[in-house]
Amino acid sequence: MIEDAVDFVVAEVRKAGLRATSDPRDLHLPGVLVGFAGLTRQLDGSADVRVRLLAVAPDRGDPLPDLDRLLVGLDSMGLGDVEAVSVTLGNHAPNPLPALETFTTVRSEP
Question: What is the pLDDT of residues 52-70, one digit of tens each?
Fold first, then answer.
Protein backbone atom coordinates (compact mmCIF):
# COMPACT_ATOMS: atom_id res chain seq x y z
CA MET A 1 0.00 0.00 0.00
CA ILE A 2 2.64 2.55 1.09
CA GLU A 3 5.26 1.35 -1.36
CA ASP A 4 2.76 1.32 -4.22
CA ALA A 5 1.71 4.91 -3.47
CA VAL A 6 5.31 6.15 -3.29
CA ASP A 7 6.25 4.28 -6.46
CA PHE A 8 3.24 5.79 -8.24
CA VAL A 9 4.31 9.32 -7.28
CA VAL A 10 7.92 8.65 -8.34
CA ALA A 11 6.62 7.54 -11.75
CA GLU A 12 4.41 10.64 -12.06
CA VAL A 13 7.29 12.97 -11.19
CA ARG A 14 9.45 11.26 -13.80
CA LYS A 15 6.66 11.72 -16.37
CA ALA A 16 6.83 15.43 -15.57
CA GLY A 17 10.45 15.35 -16.73
CA LEU A 18 12.19 15.43 -13.36
CA ARG A 19 14.64 13.01 -11.75
CA ALA A 20 12.92 11.24 -8.87
CA THR A 21 13.53 8.40 -6.45
CA SER A 22 12.39 7.17 -3.06
CA ASP A 23 15.95 6.18 -2.08
CA PRO A 24 18.17 9.10 -1.03
CA ARG A 25 21.24 7.12 -2.12
CA ASP A 26 19.93 7.13 -5.70
CA LEU A 27 18.93 10.79 -5.83
CA HIS A 28 20.66 12.75 -8.60
CA LEU A 29 20.62 16.48 -8.00
CA PRO A 30 18.71 18.49 -8.85
CA GLY A 31 15.97 15.98 -8.24
CA VAL A 32 12.94 14.97 -6.22
CA LEU A 33 13.05 12.69 -3.20
CA VAL A 34 9.68 11.01 -2.61
CA GLY A 35 8.71 9.47 0.71
CA PHE A 36 5.90 8.33 2.97
CA ALA A 37 4.38 11.04 5.19
CA GLY A 38 1.26 9.46 6.67
CA LEU A 39 -1.79 7.29 6.16
CA THR A 40 -5.52 7.66 6.83
CA ARG A 41 -7.59 4.49 6.74
CA GLN A 42 -11.18 4.67 5.50
CA LEU A 43 -14.17 2.59 6.65
CA ASP A 44 -14.42 0.90 3.24
CA GLY A 45 -10.91 -0.57 3.60
CA SER A 46 -9.22 1.97 1.36
CA ALA A 47 -6.53 4.32 2.60
CA ASP A 48 -5.32 7.79 1.73
CA VAL A 49 -1.53 7.69 1.64
CA ARG A 50 0.11 11.07 2.16
CA VAL A 51 3.32 11.34 0.15
CA ARG A 52 6.07 13.93 0.70
CA LEU A 53 8.00 15.36 -2.22
CA LEU A 54 11.30 17.14 -1.62
CA ALA A 55 12.68 18.95 -4.66
CA VAL A 56 16.37 19.24 -3.79
CA ALA A 57 18.98 21.52 -5.36
CA PRO A 58 22.72 20.80 -5.27
CA ASP A 59 25.15 22.82 -3.17
CA ARG A 60 26.70 24.94 -5.91
CA GLY A 61 26.05 28.55 -5.06
CA ASP A 62 22.71 30.02 -6.08
CA PRO A 63 20.04 27.29 -5.78
CA LEU A 64 17.21 29.38 -7.26
CA PRO A 65 17.60 28.36 -10.93
CA ASP A 66 17.52 24.65 -9.99
CA LEU A 67 14.64 25.10 -7.55
CA ASP A 68 12.72 27.09 -10.15
CA ARG A 69 13.08 24.31 -12.76
CA LEU A 70 11.99 21.71 -10.21
CA LEU A 71 9.01 23.84 -9.22
CA VAL A 72 7.89 24.19 -12.85
CA GLY A 73 7.94 20.39 -13.18
CA LEU A 74 6.00 19.89 -9.96
CA ASP A 75 3.51 22.60 -10.97
CA SER A 76 2.74 20.61 -14.11
CA MET A 77 1.45 17.87 -11.78
CA GLY A 78 -1.05 20.23 -10.16
CA LEU A 79 0.40 20.01 -6.67
CA GLY A 80 -0.59 22.57 -4.05
CA ASP A 81 1.36 24.57 -1.53
CA VAL A 82 5.15 24.48 -1.61
CA GLU A 83 7.42 25.43 1.29
CA ALA A 84 11.14 26.24 1.29
CA VAL A 85 13.06 23.82 3.55
CA SER A 86 16.56 22.46 4.04
CA VAL A 87 17.35 18.76 3.88
CA THR A 88 20.48 16.90 4.96
CA LEU A 89 21.55 14.13 2.60
CA GLY A 90 24.88 12.81 3.85
CA ASN A 91 25.81 11.18 0.55
CA HIS A 92 25.44 14.53 -1.28
CA ALA A 93 26.77 17.22 1.06
CA PRO A 94 27.76 17.54 4.72
CA ASN A 95 25.55 20.61 5.13
CA PRO A 96 21.80 20.97 4.56
CA LEU A 97 20.73 21.44 0.95
CA PRO A 98 18.05 23.88 -0.26
CA ALA A 99 14.79 22.20 -1.10
CA LEU A 100 11.11 22.72 -1.78
CA GLU A 101 8.59 20.57 0.10
CA THR A 102 5.10 19.66 -1.01
CA PHE A 103 2.66 16.82 -0.35
CA THR A 104 0.15 14.82 -2.31
CA THR A 105 -2.33 12.10 -1.42
CA VAL A 106 -2.79 8.80 -3.21
CA ARG A 107 -5.91 6.68 -2.64
CA SER A 108 -5.15 3.01 -2.08
CA GLU A 109 -8.12 0.76 -2.76
CA PRO A 110 -8.83 -2.32 -0.57
Answer: 999 999 988 899 999 999 9
